[in-house]
Write a structure and sequence with these properties.
globular; mainly alpha; Farnesyl Diphosphate Synthase; two-stranded antiparallel sheet
Length: 326
């Protein structure tokens, strides 16, 4: 049965519905340009998955409090800052089907807005008065930055290994999922077992989420994804479906793909050829299998918890995200 985000958020509806206004309030500025850019970012935010994780994991451990909202704001501010800078690094023009900040304004403004978001994040995490929260977010920040640097190293490398791929997505994506889940639990109580469970849940869910996102490059259509099919390939990013297909394909077919990747993709026909190659050699099926495996591992970390509306929603969220088509 299809479940949408609004239904998943029902156990934390009051906090989730107040989040947008709280987010925008954090960034009110006396500089008109700042308000203009931040308001644009706010209207283009996605499904607010990370704040939702904060709220639901908090609810799993008790009743939500003001500190829970503060934790959700910190996580989303940090995430948004990384996206603004990421778009500059990647020279991206589109995100979720809309123009990026750097495309509308320029790289200088984008970098400074990202810096502002980071500074607001730091100020807000101090307001939590919790050194454990500072440690969680700073560790995530370190891993994400390492992931960004690794992404640059691996871009246009046609011979990325599966080990390198998992190291990359663990750092770039799963680290903040894990941090969000721990921040949610921590906003209710500082319990070592709970934090370990939430770290494991978030890490494995984040990996499953990113593999599924990478699959959309081979399965989706531009109008569904808000980005053109084959976008990762055009940007020189080799992801799990292609890595696996290259590992098992006969040498002649594999060498042809290496040739296309190494001279840079020049046409839609080359994209189509690579997509067909991946489908033919089981790359999509293999990636789908690993999505299921990591999603199952994530859900294993929820087993110690009694049945509740929050637990049900977290299970639904994992299933929703890992079976999505956009």
């Amino acid at each position: 049965m299809f479940v949408n985000i609004a239904e998943i958020a029902e156990p934390v509806k009051e906090f989730f519905e107040k989040f947008d206004a709280a987010f925008e309030e954090k960034f009110h500025s006396q500089v008109p340009l700042v308000d203009k850019v931040v308001n644009y970012i706010a209207t283009k935010k996605g499904k607010l998955l990370r704040p939702l994780l904060v709220f639901l994991t908090a609810k799993l451990h008790g009743e939500l409090v003001d500190k829970t909202m503060s934790a959700a704001l910190v996580v989303e501010m940090f995430h948004t800052a990384t996206l603004v800078h990421d778009d500059v690094v990647d020279e991206s023009r589109l995100r979720r089907g809309s123009r990026t900040v750097n495309d509308i304004w320029d790289n200088k403004i984008s970098i400074l807005i990202g810096d502002l978001l980071f500074s607001k994040t730091l100020a807000s995490i101090v307001d939590l008065h919790d050194t454990h929260a500072v440690a969680i977010l700073s560790a995530a920040a370190e891993r994400i930055t390492e992931g960004e640097l690794l992404q640059i190293v691996l871009t246009d490398n046609s011979k990325v290994t599966e080990e390198e791929y998992f190291d990359l997505i663990s750092k770039k994506t799963a680290s903040l999922f894990s941090a969000a889940c721990r921040m949610g639990a921590l906003s209710i109580r500082d319990d070592e077992t709970a934090l370990k469970n939430m770290a494991g849940f978030g890490e494995n869910y984040g990996i499953a989420f990113q593999i599924r996102d990478d699959l959309l490059d081979y399965l989706g259509e531009a109008d569904k994804l808000g980005k053109p099919t084959g976008n990762d390939l055009r940007e020189g990013k080799v992801t799990l479906p292609l890595i696996h297909a290259l590992n098992i394909a006969p040498s002649a077919a594999r060498d042809k793909i290496f040739g296309i990747l190494e001279h840079g993709i020049k046409s839609d026909e080359e994209i189509d050829h690579i997509v067909k190659f991946v489908l033919t050699h089981g790359g999509v099926d293999y990636a789908k299998k690993l999505v299921r495996q990591f999603a199952a591992r994530a859900l294993d970390y929820l087993k110690p918890y009694q049945d509740s509306a929050a637990k049900k929603s977290l299970i639904q969220l994992v299933n929703h995200s890992t079976n999505r088509d956009k």
